[in-house]
Amino acid sequence: MSETSAPALGGRRALPRNASNAAEDDLPTVELQGLTPRGFNLQDYLNVTNVHLFKERWDTNKVDHHTDKYENNHLIVRRGQSFFIQIDFNRPYDPRRDFFRVEYVIGRYPQENKGTYIPVPVVSQLQKGKWGAKVVMREDRSVRLSIQSSPECIVGKFRMYVAVWTPYGILRTSRNPETDTYILFNPWCEEDAVYLDDDKEREEYVLNDIGVIFYGDFNDIKTRSWSYGQFEDGILDACLYVMDRAEMDLSGRGNPIKVSRVGSAMVNAKDDEGVLVGSWDNIYAYGVPPSAWTGSVDILLEYQSTKNPVRYGQCWVFAGVFNTFLRCLGIPARVVTNYFSAHDNDANLQMDIFLEEDGNVNSKLTKDSVWNYHCWNEAWMKRSDLPVGFGGWQVVDSTPQENSDGMYRCGPASVQAIKHGHICFQFDAPFVFAEVNSDLIYITVKKDGTHVVENVDTTHIGKLIVTKEVGGDGIRDITDTYKFQEGQEEERLALETALMYGAKKSLNTEGIVKPRSDVDMDFEVEKAVLGRDFKLTITFQNNSPNRYTLSAYLSGNIVFYTGVSKTEFKKETFEVTLEPMSFKKQEVLIRAGEYMSQLLEQGFLHFFVTARVSETRDILAKQKSTVLAIPKLIIKVRGTRMVGSDMVVTVEFTNPLKETLRNVWIYLDGPGVTKPMRKMFREIRPNSTVQWEEVCRPWVSGPRKLIASMTSDSLRHVYGELELQIQRRPSV
Asked: Of the ranges 231-245, 407-421, 528-542, 602-616, which is most confident?
């Protein structure tokens, strides 16, 4: 059998898959048909001497297409909208006898029917929705064209050629990287699937390169700025590389549904060597702790340059990088935080917490976890694959939680479909519905093996869903876009619809929900500061004329923000006697020495209080989390805050702890002001201060931010930021 270098296509395709934007084959410069007569001279026909793309930042093309912020010397345009080019010929162009066209090619095996080879004819009038080139100016040997692309065009980097017709075939310009043209999604074009009709929202969800991500606890919401940096040098190519790495067919790259689904799989490295390795075990050897990242730029550039997944990420890092990917390509996107997010493995709409008869949590049976918060993304697009009314914001989640169609990815799932319980619509709507709608169920496991439901909390999960407000750094509550208010008729109808479409909500218990106890219990955790003692106060209320005795149990745990417990650091039992119609408070002191040695990077402490009423055998249970207040980095600036002018940035940190911090890294970032950088300090002694100075020269005017983070062996999640107003450089 003879060997051949030709690809084995199995007889099913004429050409191999076209799945790489970077791969290319040059088109021939001469395509002659048949024999040419003696005396035939190419110079007798129209020849291209130069092509001008008007690709400077101040040129009309980039300004009109809202691509003037990209740090990229090539022409970048948005699909479905006209742009200008100029072609210089060797002689004046005569439309009666000269025929030419512009060609755009992407990938290695261009085909017109796949949209990877696009011949653009010269027409007398441009038509909406179609490729075309119209001559708008003829001057001496130059022709200026207005070129309009299709609003369904593939998104990526195209090679451009000019082809001239002769009686004997085609003469084509040589491959010239300078004329390469990027075509992006266009939220300003009504025919584009990502069209967004509000100008302020387009400014926020496409053009804003600095965001705010909310984290912490429902009762103690914290914020951190994130540098999306979608316009930074090299980021657009890095985003295209992500799709190449996924081997995504080029013909599908004009569909935002497919692009966002591929992106949700590729931003995590779980099963496809994607961008980020997730780690939730507090061990970050050979990588950067998730809390140290200040933005997406370093992550995407490292991934493209090393061709290896970057270590490490957690949900807000995945969401931040995915937001950069979507906005860079032109898909409107935002980061969303869901407080008390259910990670329900079988999407059965219930989070079962199993208790022993003495009130302790049975960790072997309790498999579901409630994340204190979880970040995902929303992307704006039409859903032509769904019935009318389910377009708009779509949930896309790149944190690797559950397998979807064989890969760790999630979405796009219509937010509108989730709200109304239409979980039959693709993709992954049942999982997202469970994240925001599950019930928290406390079940006592009896010694004889029977289960008794003690309490059902229908309001704990999906307590608050937020995103950054448009045009500011404040918080915007979007809970009502995901769910109706508890108790409303619409809420009950949405749940019934979800059940009809296959959501499971059967209680695997042998008992029924018990009637309410005569005794109420609640507790409050004092505002806690890292490294200091604080108090926890439990209140017992007797609402009956009877006297009761209670056996109470307090468990304090250090937990990951995902709700998974690392270790129990506090255990206390006590007896309480309640007189008729009375209440009693019990204070418990939590000492710093009890939690500091085991603390995880986000400073989450979780308290679980259970009590058994001796006379009635009723079980009372409550759980709450608290986030320790962590010290901040201070950023100062000296010098003129102007484009092109040097200014000195100082990052300062004082160690408030009683222990020495070792292997300290401080990170600094600020899109348009400084490239991401970092500096190491071997140690910071207790109560001592370190300073780091850098000279920065801003290149973008307007409102900007400097963002800093700090990480060490024993203290992480330390942030600081400073808002700046950078002035334009005065024109001479």
From this structure: 231-245
pLDDT tens, position by position, 392-433? 999 999 998 777 777 778 989 999 999 999 999 999 998 899
Question: Residue 221 forms beta bridges with which residues?
Answer: 216
Query: And the tokens for 575?
Result: 């007896």
Amino acid identity at 96: R
Q: Of 154, 288, 413, nearest to 665 (Cα)?
A: 288
Cβ contact 411:319 at 8 Å: no
CB atoms under 10 Å from CB of 9, counted, come to 11
Task: Tell me what the mean pLDDT of segment 1-10 comes to.
Answer: 43
- The three-state DSSP-derived secondary structure of 502-565 is CCCCCCCCCCCCCCCCCEEEEEEECCCECCCCEEEEEEEEECCCCCEEEEEEEEEEEECCCCCE
Helix (H) or strand (E) holding 494: helix 489-500
Q: Which helix (H) or strand (E) holds 452?
A: strand 451-457
For residue 629, the 8-state DSSP code is B
Task: Say which amino acid occupies 610.
Answer: T
* Residue owning tokens 């009890």: 594
Kindly give the pairing relationship between strand 403-404 and strand 407-408.
Answer: antiparallel
Give CA–CA dist 548/320, Å, rounded.
Answer: 52
pLDDT at 325: 98
The 10 Å Cβ neighbour count of residue 511 is 14
Q: Residue 605's closest CA among 618, 592, 620, 587?
A: 592
Average pLDDT value for residue range 685-691:
95
Q: Can you list the alpha helix ranges (DSSP code H) found in 315-442?
A: 315-329, 415-420, 429-437
Residues identified as active-site: 315, 374, 397
Name the binding residues for Ca(2+): 437, 439, 486, 491
Distance of CA 432 to CAs 396, 416, 427, 483, 503, Å?
10, 12, 10, 11, 11
Distance, CA of 574 to CA of 522 (rounded, Å): 15
CA atoms within 13 A on the CB side of 196: 24
User: DSSP label at 204?
Assistant: I
DSSP codes, 649-668:
EEEEEE--SSS-EEEEEEEE
Q: Are 518 and 543 in contact (CB under 8 A)?
A: yes
Q: With beta carbons less than 8 A apart as the criterion, state whether 299 and 241 touch.
A: no
User: Does the global pTM surpass 0.85?
Assistant: yes
Tell me the H-state helices in 179-296.
Answer: 199-202, 235-245, 256-266
Q: The tokens 């970048």 sit on which residue?
A: 76
Q: What pLDDT, in 10s, does the model give residues 102-134?
A: 999 999 989 999 999 999 999 999 999 999 999
Which residue numbers belong to the known binding site?
437, 439, 486, 491
Q: What's phi and psi for 187, nearest 5 deg?
A: -70, -10
Cα(268)–Cα(532) distance, integer angstroms: 37
Instruction: Please give the pLDDT value at position 3.
Output: 38
The dihedrals phi and psi of 411, each to the nearest 5 degrees, come to: 95, 180
Q: How far is C-alpha 221 from the geometric centre of its chain's CA atoms?
A: 19
Burial class from Cβ neighbours inside 10 Å (0-12, 13-18, 19+) for residue 139 reads: exposed
